[in-house]
Protein 1
Amino acid sequence: MLRLQKHLSLHLQDLLPVHRSASLVQLSLERALLSTAAATYSFPGHFAADDYLVSACGLTREQAAKAAKWISHWKSSSHADAVLSFLTGPALGLSKADIRLLVAKDPRILSCSVDNTLRIRVDRFHSYGFSAAQIISFVRVAPCSFRTFNIDQKLGFWMPLLGSPDKFLRIVRRNLYLVTSDLDKVVKTNIRLLQECGLSVQECSTMCVANPRLLTGNPDTTRAILVRADEMGVPRNTFLFRQAVTAVASLGPETMASKLEMMAKILRCSDAEVARMVQRNPLVLTRSRERIQRACEFLTNVVGVDTKYIQDRPTILMYSLERRLVPRHYVMKVLLEKGLIRKDQSFYSMVTLSDSVFCSKFVHPHKDVLPSLADAYASACNGKIAT
């Protein structure tokens, strides 16, 4: 710049008379020429990518250093500004935190065309029933996929199968492979394998909610799961077989063997007896050792049933000890003490009722005799047992 100024001063000396005065006109002319020359001869404006990512997108310096390579060749921020304006504008309404997440995970989003890419993608989401809030939820869950995944291909398949954007988002939060898995080679192959075992497409959809990797995992893994489910001895084409597949899919072979051994020890029974118990309710295998141990101790030591009673009714282990077993037993104990139910009343039948039905049969009918029973039961369900 200093050399440029000297060059201009000499140039001015050639243009102006030798005996000139330092007039305001001369000074103004010099400044104008300097300004014009600076604009004409200087290098293109430098775009500080790191600074822009920090100040405009909210990235940390470390994040910005990683992301800057995608935009460091730019001459200005005008394109990125337009992208951010669209993303935070009325069409979508991303927050500063959303922008920070999205740009950190996928900085190339800043290179997208607003009209030819972003606006079209938002419109395609809307065409499948997604609200702006649900699109934002997708951005938060799968920021790396918002720009890249094939909306019509993926949503065109999943939405009819799952039925709603909320269900789709609920599964994607647990399994991003719903967006990235190959539909023909992986997902549809897994559905065919499950159908061969007697499951309907709708049942496959239901199972996907509980364990999405059944549909998005390697088909060889799905085949192995179905073989292990068959080995449990549960007939195909039954609701219990669906439970068996769900249980096996959530447990590796070693973990499953350990669970069976643990249950045999807690219930003091043979392997064959545990196998029959699991056939009655395969999902009991998904309960933790602690939950099974505590429930069995309560049932045998407090309720007074034996382990054979539990083996024949494994579903009783699926209920919450604190929110179901203990409160229901409290009501049963009070009613027995007052002689308001038969002495041979089945505890299991009381446990399996829905809360509304249980109250209508065992709580509300006794409000005149036991006016505090309803409140005591509610307190028990909250972990507070009346003494």
Protein 2
Amino acid sequence: MERNMTQHYRALIGGEWQQGRRGSFAVDDPATAQVVAMVADVDVSQVDLAIEAADRAFDRWRRLSAQERCDLVLLWHNRLQENRQRLAELITLESGKPMAESLGEVEYGASYLKWYAQQGVRANGQTLPALPGGRRPMTVKQPVGVVGVITPWNFPLAMIARKVAPALAAGCAVVIKPAAETPLTALLMAELAQEAGIPDGVINLVPGSDAAVIGHRLCTHPKVRKLSFTGSTSVGRLLMAQSAERVQKLSLELGGNAPFLVFDDANLEGAVSGLMASKFRNSGQTCVCANRILVQRGIYDDVIARLKARMAALTLGPGALPGTDLGPLISDRALTRVEALVRDAVASGARLTMGGSRSPKGERFYLPTLLESVTEDNPIWTQEIFGPVVAVTQFDTEEEGVRLANSSEAGLASYLYSDNLPRAVRVAEALEYGMVGINEGIISSAVAPFGGIKSSGLGREGGQEGLEEYLETKYLCLGGIG
């Protein structure tokens, strides 16, 4: 990741660090809104060069043994661990999240490299029962090919690791388009991959300000056989349409609108702790944040009292300062959007009982906010808030709670708190979501499949399922065996 004293960063194409043919774009610190770096702004011709470099590298990379590839992925994991502080500082600088969260993201992201370094050697085919006529059927697993990777700004390290680790372990080469808001962490990751010995061209990184053009090219270039995208549902639909002509393999992790149900038989302190962990992580800017809080009527006042006390104790400030719980929102646009959501929610009948305004800490800081009496016809009910806003409603029966929870086109993450085991199982099975946290607010793990249903996407990341996303199953039929 070459840079000079003015903090200019370059793209990585075929093992070479290159300037952007469109010049450079600025990256700022959300806590201060000050520009902290200029990054190469690639054009579509450079995207083509990166794809061609990945295609050449793929032919060599796939021919390595699975163990050789996975050993290199493990070395990359080690380099990330050795540079955890440096990486965390970059994450905080460009995303604004508190340092404790940034360090946690490095650990979390690195865990995917370690997991797939161990799992990649287990991409096994099968020998099937013999067929009539002396035929022997079998299957083999082969890498998909060149993979386009488009990642969001809210987890600039973890989202790359979650996609690229299984791709490399499977034998694929990648072209990564990081979010324009947070490319610096991605560039350092690529530098560390080079230091780990991953061959030139296996990882290419094309930062750019024109996401639409880069995304379109990754969908339409004939040598890109798969696209993995994390981002909004609207952009996911567009990419899916662009990929349709070539029937490109897709993994889409799209928007969420997570319900968080608290039943009257729950451990209330545990439920509020789980809600705080889920809702306020990265200042509410994650796709699996608790978004719609549903509390059974008999415990409502108790839960709200506990929640207000915990929210009032949160410390806002720049992520680099010790003791910070909540950092800024990522951009002026993000803050303006959250303000508008809260304003419209109140205009539609919600009660603002805490927060609801900008904080004096800085231009992009928004106070922890509590909205009560949020009905399902309130516009905030259908929106992914992406901010430190808790929207709460009450329900009476288990059936009503499940119906309210499922009243969304999103189907990514959901949460329920109940100490009644039969109820917990019933509700978990009834929730129309790809993931369910049962008495737990933090659910992501390298060992488990991450992904949604309905309009929240296609495919899974993490676990053995994540490796399968980058493999094709080929059937071989051997005749004349006798």
Protein 3
Amino acid sequence: MSRCLFVTGGASGIGRAMAQRFAQAGWFVALADVDVPGMAQTGALLPAGRWSAHLLDVRDAAAWDAALAAAAQAGGGAIHVVANNAGVPLGGRLADCSVAEIERVIVINLTGATLGARAAYPWLKAAAQAGGGPVCLLNTASAAALYGTPGTSAYAATKAGLRALTEALDAEWAGDGIAVRSLMPGFIATPLIEQAPNAATPGTIRDVVQRQRLDIGRPQDVAQAAWQAVHGARLHTLVGPTARRLAFAARWLPGALRRRLRR
């Protein structure tokens, strides 16, 4: 039976790179997104007949159920990996972010992923019972989940929530044979990094990153980390030098890190 990846945010960026990486290994790929033209562009990069596209707003629980059922039907009856990858950015001072912006980032990044985990559970459980390889819920968190930094408050809160969701479900679903993993990349060169931090702040997220002389990684590196996470035992996978440096400082030099960030 063909193995199937269901990936949200599959129209571009990290989701597109994940789709390509798993397709290279012979997997059927079910793309889910609100961006229909973008999914078609991703599909054009995949083997013919080995992908499907599903309109999904991750905030809609009923849409999750419908998309997963359609993906399973298209992919041969089972779903082996659900990648909770859809997300939106929000940066800048919290006081400069509107209520609508704060509510949007929370409901898409955290509520949407939690609804996705709930909807994915019966499909992943069935795949685990059938055997034949790893079965996994994969959450795209962020280096922001390691330690909240200035200018990332609401966004970091959602990604820290994804980290906690990963840890809780890793224990909760262990008896069902479902692995739960997270990815924690630093800044990645996707269309999201070209957006403004928030509506009240000029420039782009890329501008902020470059001023701070931080590294910007490639979606392909996150996709390779996703492949390794699904097939490995590591609960959280750091991706890129920014994530590794922040993890080191948060663990071993928390006082120095706090003082530096407060400056």
Protein 4
Amino acid sequence: MRTTSNPAFKNLPTAGGYANFNHGQGGYGAPFGQAPAAPPQTARPMTIDDVVTKTAITLAIAVVTGAVTYLMGPIALSLALPAALIGLVISLVIIFKKKVSPALVIAYSVVEGVFLGGISYLFAMIVGNPGIILQAIAGTVGVFAAMLVVYKTGAIRVTPKLTKWIIGAVAGVAVLMLVNLIASFFVQGGLGLRDGGGLAIAFSLLCIGIAAFSFLLDFDAADQAIKGGVDAKFAWYIAFGLMTTLVWLYLEILRLLSYFQND
């Protein structure tokens, strides 16, 4: 399986290590030159339906909880930061936990929905236009669908070179965000990456582009896992990974739209 920029996919087993493990090879207790019986499979291999179903469940939970939180009005603002912190902790547990936990993925979806509802209400209040939320959602869905078509048609192939470029780009923007945050404590506006100016618009467009290309790595990791016959339960990891990229993309699109609303 190729390397991916999404840490959630690092928990997926190596492709090919599930469906045919040791089948057709000599082993202890088998006559010389004779293949042992295939080991019993205690679980079925993952299919595209598993990925679609688990991803739909996680996204539906996030959307519903986000909408409910948004409709709470000003209360949503007080919930955003705690939800972000709790979501970060849960995501780290999911990433470093060796065993698949659907309950944790669902819990992450709920908390992330609360965070998105609160942050969406904040942006809508700042720009004075609730319609910006639907625009950001439409943009996120559009980019996701476009990149899925690009991947399925092979218009852009996921090569080791492209993978390294995307991973480097993700690491680069993460460092810039951190530096800008630290700089904002000493200089108003920090490096100007989030102040709504021309540089901020260019930076948001860059982030949107990198997030979009990250989907290619996510799709490829999922595709390799399906072809490798990994356990169906790992579809929860893929759903979690896709959602983290979708959340990043949504926030960047929402931020970009807010810049133009303020003009």
